[in-house]
Amino acid sequence: PYYVDMNQNLFLQASLHSSDQNLTVFVDTCVASPNSSDFRTLAYELTKSGCASDSTFALFPSPHSDVARFGFNAFSFVNRFPSVFLQCELVVCRYQDYSSRCYQGCVSTFKRNADS
């Protein structure tokens, strides 16, 4: 476990370990939960489809394409739960393949009613 104070800035880094030097990594979705095995019942989205859902979530520049850096402010689930667990989905793409998901950034999908 990693212990932090409320509203403390948390900085995270995800590294891709591969012999293929032509890959890049992108943070697509991150969800927090008070339960390490259930990220659906009680969950808080920090980012979804590359779009920040939390105002404190931010992506940071990385020195290498195979490293993603991001952060957010620490929070709790209404003080009822002692821990917050984080689950992130990352996408791996070919480096400089600008048609790939890694280079699309925030992809917001709006649903509309097809009735009229």
From TrEMBL:
Keywords: Disulfide bond, Signal
Classification via InterPro entries: ZP-C, ZP-C_dom, ZP_dom
Keyword Transferase attributed: no
ZP domain span: 1-109
Cited PANTHER family: CUB AND ZONA PELLUCIDA-LIKE DOMAIN-CONTAINING PROTEIN 1, ENDOGLIN/TGF-BETA RECEPTOR TYPE III
This protein's name: DMBT1 protein
Organism field: Callaeas wilsoni (North Island kokako)
